[in-house]
Amino acid sequence: MGRLALFFPTITHQGNSNIAYPSDMRLKIEETWLYTYPDVMVVCGEEKFGNEQQDILLNPDVITEVLSDSTEGYDRGAKFGFYRTLSSLREYVIISQNSQKMEKYSRNEAGQWVLTESDAEHPGILLESIDCELPLSEVYDKVEDS
């Protein structure tokens, strides 16, 4: 799963003004004052930073988290609740570490979050905000299903 961050830059620099950040970029959620390190964030357009060092991002359009047994409850619950307060966030992707499955939550025009799942029957997720497909086969390449 560590290669996931490497995958995003290749799909977001195909003529689009999107920038992918790996897990060493900190995110500040201003409404809750939470600081956290998502696995991957993508910004479409101009980034907004929370400091002069530009190591605290304020406006991701896409956030991706890889679930582990110890973080799954938090990533799906409270953390996603914090993420939903970000006005910039359009898509939240959750990737299972224990099975070949991805989930995408997209904010629709009414502000509701809509779930799309990817598994063996539905082998990819379209990330509309960055105009690319996240194929299950690429995400799990060289990863054995447990």
Textual characterization of the structure:
The protein has 146 residues and is an alpha+beta fold. The protein has a single domain (4-139), classed as tt1808, chain A. The chain contains 4 helices and 11 strands. It has helices at residues 4-12, 72-76, 78-84, 136-139, and strands at 18-21, 26-29, 34-36, 40-44, 56-57, 62-66, 91-95, 102-107, 113-118, 124-127, 132-135. A 6-stranded mixed beta sheet has the order 1-4-6-7-8-9, with helices on one face. A 3-stranded mixed beta sheet has the order 3-2-5, with no helix packed on it. The protein is globular. It starts with a helix and ends in a 7-residue tail after the last helix.
Attribute tags:
single chain; 146 residues; alpha+beta; tt1808, chain A; six-stranded mixed β-sheet; 17% helix; 33% strand
Task: Give a short overview.
About 15% of the residues lie in helices and about 35% in strands.
* Share in helix: 10-25%
Task: State the order of secondary-structure elements, H for helix, E for strand.
Answer: HEEEEEEHHEEEEEH
Q: Which CATH class is shown?
A: Alpha Beta
> Could you tell me the radius of gyration in angstroms?
14 Å
What CATH calls the topology is: tt1808, chain A
CATH superfamily: tt1808, chain A
Number of DSSP strand runs: 11
* Number of structural domains: 1
Sheet of most strands = 6 strands, mixed
Strand content: 25-35%
Given the helix and strand composition, which structural class is it?
alpha+beta
State the separation between the terminal residues, measured CA to CA.
14 Å
The second-level CATH architecture is: Alpha-Beta Complex
Low-confidence parts: none
> What is the assembly state of the chains in this entry?
single chain
* Arrangement of strands in the largest sheet: 1-4-6-7-8-9
Characterize the overall form.
globular
Number of helices: 4
